[in-house]
Amino acid sequence: MDRIRELINEIREYGVNNDVPIMSVESIDTISNIIKENNIKSILEIGTAIAYSTICFASIDGIEKVTSIERDKVRFSIAKSNVLKSKLNNIELICDDALNTVINGKYDLVIIDAAKSQNLKFFNKYKENLNENGIIIIDNLDFHGYVGKSSEIKSRNLRQMVRKIEKFIDFLDENQEFNVKYIEVGDRLGVCKRKNS
Ligand SMILES: C[S@@+](CC[C@H](N)C(=O)[O-])C[C@H]1O[C@@H](n2cnc3c(N)ncnc32)[C@H](O)[C@@H]1O
Q1: Are 71 and 79 in contact (CB under 8 A)?
Q2: CATH classification of the domain holding 69
Q3: 137 Cβ inside 6 Å of ligand 1
Q4: pLDDT for res 196
Q5: Residue 165: pLDDT above 80?
Q6: How far is the CA of 129 from the centre of ligand 1 (A)?
Q7: How many domains does the chain have?
Q8: Cys staple from 15: which of 20, 143, 166, 184, with CB 3.0 to 4.6 Å?
Q9: Which domain does 43 fall in, by range?
């Protein structure tokens, strides 16, 4: 097994054992295929955690740049150390609240995998950083099977969060700018491509 694969497996194991939420292997594989099929060269990721997905995507052949934003200082420092171990030089990590970060460049792919209640804000903010033919991918649109069943949820906080995801999905379905495809992998991915692309 090559060095990067070994490191990726170690990071995944650490995430699972320490309750760090990371993407499922199936979601990583699906997004990796989208990256290859669409000749993606640059990625902006919202929600680094410990840089598991960051390193998975940055290690794909042809990826020139991955910028990833994480607000949690402890996770950010683990992410930094993992990126150092990877010896990849195409990753830029930013420790900040992504709701406030100013990113100037344009990217071929924006991945939204941070606070699920803020999906709409992230989408509207970071679509401005998307290249003309770029793609936006949002993870966890099923939120562990709760989406579509918010009225049955007893916990007020969880119900409010799931309602926000449901509203976000309504927004995606009704929006005029992007075509949206849902992929039933992991916790459901939303894949958005501009209508004119
Ligand atoms: C699901 S995890 C990311 C997992 C990572 N993409 C992976 O698959 O390896 C979500 C992360 O987003 C971070 N986060 C949540 N809201 C954020 C915000 N407003 N700005 C930056 N990071 C945020 C959380 O601290 C958490 O570590």
Answers
A1: no
A2: 3.40.50.150
A3: no
A4: 75
A5: yes
A6: 18
A7: 1
A8: 20
A9: 3-194
